[in-house]
Design a protein that fits this description.
about 425 residues; 9 strands
Amino acid sequence: RSPRRYCFARISTPFSRALCRHQQRLPTDEWRRADHTARALYRHMSPSARELAFSAAGALAGIAAMLALQRALLTGSRAVTLAMQQSEEDQGEITRGRAKHDMTPSQLARRQAADPLISLMLDLLDRLSLTEACAVAEDLIAEHLEAAQREDAPPTELSTLAPRLVSNEFGRLWQPLHLREALIDYDNEAHVTCRQYVPATFRELRNICNLAQVRGAAGPGAALQLLTFDGDQTLYPDRATLGSDAPLVPLLLELLTRGVALALVTAVGFDEAAPYEARLSGLLAALTAASAPEALCSRVFVVGGQCNYLARCRAEGGVATLYMVPPSEWRLPEMERWRPQQLQRLLDVAQRALLDGAARMHMADKVKLVRKERAVGVLYEAEKHRTELHRTTTLMLDELAVHARQAVREEQRTNAALRSMPFC
């Protein structure tokens, strides 16, 4: 068969379950439901039925294996209806997923591995080499992008194999990914294809995909118009700024001269430009040294407080500075409908939950409350309590964040006026 048209049977021994998928034929909801039903039934099987299930899964693939597995599962000691009920509960948790701050570190790692693009690569690696998997994934994406240009195009193979990858939930595929070339570049440094027994890791696959994304954005014919960056540990080190000596400054300046707009998107929320100017001081100094041409300055933006503030660069007397764009010029209509009293109510609930949680975990004297116009949080006073730092401190702070999040969600469930107001 062609490498694209594959099906496989997978046995996950840690959970004592057999997972048989026929991705080319079954819609994603159907095989997911079948998987969870099989898992629930498997927990109630006799030892002989389990042996039969494993032999069926190991010998067959696709629909044939699923039918054989189903016959084996039905020899279990419990009724099918009981297992189906449990399957529905499992399915609800997995299909809806969990938010980042609702997870333990191990659960978060599994969630990251479920990234739709990485998940597609991992599925391909079950049957193909890394080189073949990159080639197949690149062809699938190119075929999907070509079909997306036609209104009457039938569902693509990619939409069947990886429906989450092409859904709006994870953004839109907007350019081909040259995974073959990215693998060659990455392999020259990491030599990942030379390994015979240790497969490519999630981090390695992500690096290859990221490299392919960069190559596509910077390659011939690319129509790149905007690049957005996080601040800490992306544009500059954690709790630092983009200084004049940063190696990224000349590269960012070169992007501006090529007509690419740049935006710092950060959780830092201020209604004045000075804090953002401090974080981009090196880039602003480079623009000033180049006589601050308006054509370049106007392409620099800062989105602060997640989405609550917008700053833009401009030239004033040959000096590049930032100014706050009036909200009426950029806020969406739904954002204009947010009422100040509703915002303050949500912040009050979150603040109370943070303080109560800190007291419950004996951290009330170790955290400092910070309340802003559209944000509230606590800072762990590391300098003051450095001798008390422990490897569980991060988990304790995560506990505070989850506690506040659940409190806000509960308030939204009971207060209809707050249900449509987003928060993070």
